[in-house]
Amino acid sequence: MTRTVYRLTAKDFAVIEAMLMRRRAFADPIAPMLERKLAESRVIAAGAVEPDLATLNSRVIFRVGGRSSQTRTLVQAEASAPVGSGLTVATWHGLCLLGMTVGQLALAGRLDGPAEEVLLEDVAYQPEAARRAARDPAAERPRHVLKLVHSAPAADWPLGGRAKIRQTEGDDPGPSAA
């Protein structure tokens, strides 16, 4: 990756730090990239997260090199998202995207090949910003309103039937039936 400044929430920083401790113990090739990510990141408060910042559980639209755009959810582990919709931060691209803002371009350095340019095109869903908007009653949100499309008079019954009381006196089987 290039000398880019990433912004991570305290939770995201802790996840990367824990990954680094586990990966270092097994001499994993992604460990140097994890170290670089932590060194080039600054921690921000969860309340200060803007809607254009890629954090864990954000749905991001990104492009790698000159290829077509992809939409994925940044996840900690592969099992936490439906097949094909998640991008774990344990991959080169997922780790690169974490902490980026919309329009930011970075290089995902790889040991098995040349570095690739990763461009964050959009953040379709940002969980911290969505939570903040849900708590703020003044925030403009689309209101979901039910609309009654037909109303029938109470005296009308389907197929001309009349209402009958289902249970009449003498029909009660008593407590032994329960």
TrEMBL record:
User: Which UniProt keywords are given for this protein, alphabetically ordered?
Assistant: Kinase, Transferase
Which Gene Ontology terms cover its molecular function? DNA binding; kinase activity
**Which residues constitute the signal peptide according to the record?**
none
Q: Where is this region: Disordered?
A: 158-178
| Entry's Gene Ontology BP terms | regulation of DNA-templated transcription elongation
What is the protein's name according to its record? Nucleoside-diphosphate kinase
Organism name: Mesorhizobium atlanticum
